[in-house]
Amino acid sequence: METFMERRDFLAQTAAAVSATLLLGSFRTDRYDFVGSALAAGSSDSPKAALEQRFADFALALRYEVLPADVIQSVKRVLLDTLGCAFGSVGFDPANIAETTIRKTFGEGNTATVIGYPRPATIEGALFVNGVLVRSLDLNDTYIGTEPLHPSEVLPTAIALCEENGRTGRDLIEAVVAGYEASMRLNDAISFIERGFHPLCAASYGIPLIAGKIWGLPKEAIANAVGISGARGFTSFVVNSGAISMMKAMGLAATATDGVFATRLAAQGFTGPSGTLDWLVGVENETRQRGFCR
């Protein structure tokens, strides 16, 4: 008891001292200046400073005109397959609950189509429900890299944002390829499962590329968006363990909503961290050895 009282007194006195310092105006806020962007957070030749920049460079360099014909055909096939999965899920509980909830959360909107439902919604609302629809039946397109991934779940983001911004079919294909490729390359390079995370974490790096490309953002904004989204995008693999709950259907939908919000922030000048994968064990060596940085 005596030790407890001593600690409590110490904490109380410390709090009082800090409060007094703040009130006297001697607190130095210049210690907490933020970096200008994810690109400025490290030296330009540092691998951990370059990852977000490389993603941004990749997205901006991608053009429909240089895409191989088989890639374009594959995107069209995946689009049809993904829409089929979504329509097949309409009316089931996960989508119905999601559709009701997004209107209470984001409000009514007239921006983007909610697949299979009569009323449109806000961007975040539509891409969330559509993401749940795509995943619910567990039949959507799968990529087997280091571990299984469903990159087709990035399509609802591309579709909703292209609809909002009046983009063409070619713009849609470009955005899908950017999100798909980034997610698959990261999935090739890193095992998320062995670290306790879900492979859908890879899409937290692909979603900002989709949004940034459709919105026509500059490299710095896209790099910051990737940093923000990547830092927040680590979903536990527990969603695929044991008794499977409805959350399995919303995992990437939630990541996509978060990634779009991250891109909105970055578009307004909000900065994100660099090296967002460095804390994973041995990630720099893995990305080199498995070819991600080639």
Automatic annotation (TrEMBL):
User: Under what name is this protein listed?
Assistant: MmgE/PrpD family protein
A molecular function GO annotation: lyase activity
Q: Which organism is it from?
A: Bradyrhizobium zhengyangense
Gene3D superfamilies in UniProt: 2-methylcitrate dehydratase PrpD
Family per UniProt?
Belongs to the PrpD family.
Question: What PANTHER family has UniProt attached to this entry?
Answer: 2-METHYLCITRATE DEHYDRATASE, 2-METHYLCITRATE DEHYDRATASE-RELATED
SUPFAM superfamilies, per the entry: 2-methylcitrate dehydratase PrpD
Which InterPro entries is this protein grouped with?
MmgE/PrpD_sf, MmgE/PrpD_sf_1, MmgE_PrpD, MmgE_PrpD_N, TAT_signal
Extract the coiled-coil ranges from the record: none
Residues annotated as domain MmgE/PrpD N-terminal? 53-278
| A Pfam family the protein falls into | MmgE_PrpD_N
